[in-house]
Amino acid sequence: MSDSTTTTARPPLAERVLQGDPRAIARAISLIEDEAPEGADLVRRIFANTGRAYLVGVTGAPGAGKSTLVDRLIAELRGRGQTIGIVAVDPTSPFSGGAILGDRVRMQAHVADDGVFIRSMATRGHLGGLARATGEAALVLDAAGKDVVVIETVGVGQDEVDIVRTADVSIVTLVPGTGDEVQALKAGIMEIADIFVVNKADREGADRTVASIEALLSLESFGGGRWRPPIVKTEATAGKGVTELADAIERFRAHMAPVQGERRRARAEWRVRELLAHRFVQHVHDRVLSAGEFERYLDRIAARDTDPYTVVDDILGRSIRV
Questions:
Q1: CA 11, 141, 7 angle in degrees (round to 5)?
Q2: Confidence category of residue 8, pLDDT binned at 50, 70, 90
Q3: Which residue, among 224, 223, 141, 157, has the nearest Cα to 192 in the 3D structure?
Q4: Which tens digit of pLDDT belongs to each residue from 245-278?
Q5: What is the dihedral of CA 218, 219, 223, 227, to 10 degrees?
Q6: What pTM was computed for the model?
Q7: What is the Cα Rg of the chain in Å?
Q8: What are the CA-CA distances from residue 145 to residues 42, 140, 297 (Å)?
Q9: pLDDT at 93 over 90
Q10: Whole-angstrom Cα distance, residue 264 to residue 258?
Q11: What Cα–Cα distance (Å) separates residue 109 from each residue in 79, 80, 192, 272?
């Protein structure tokens, strides 16, 4: 008796991502995060199906309550019928190399929701508040059909502003009583905000923080149709102010719709330049320099036998020939 059972070939990973398969999404992000060649090939295959999701960046200092705020924002957006992808960037564990906080530690209420996909990513030493692969992870979630992708940065300082080059809207979260009144008057992270959130607004000093941000905004002119960042007071643990925050995101999206293409083009330019620089360094390491040669260059610089500019010119000249 012959076995007439037929086996069906499994669809390619890219196809399963486009179908919204959670396991495929997780596998795809892992390939990209590990900088595997298959990850780059996957991005090529899905890229034409991206550009539909709206990317919401949430940043701010450590302890600002970003995770709780994102958790409440997810619930609000789900209530409005939107599907959500979350990329939560965490510090890198010095032991495992992975994210210190996992995606199952935070946002527990949404784990069983088919309309929500949560992924934690370790920075792996990458500066700027994001992991190197954050943008590509957002692309995977976009291709998988998520309406909104929320990117929560690791707790950042004033100069770690990569989120503005990745998200469609940047939300800067501040907390009263932690020096944010002073920080509001300084350059850096404060300049990237499309929306300010003063979280834990039940604390003493919340109104003072709002006034400090208002003073900062008053130094600029917002004529000619320019967007003036609103200040939203929230108490994320109680869910207060989250509806107003979601409304502010929608207003910003509508306001910026005429120039959305320009913003995304600018982000594409930055990403291509970053990727080109990263690939060039890889090329130098893999195909130009011999084993230990880079270290010998550094030894010569430290001994003042040569200088960094001469070394770079030498490596660049050799790279062009290779």
A1: 10
A2: low
A3: 157
A4: 999 999 999 999 999 888 889 888 988 998 898 8
A5: -70
A6: 0.84
A7: 23
A8: 16, 9, 48
A9: no
A10: 12
A11: 14, 17, 30, 37
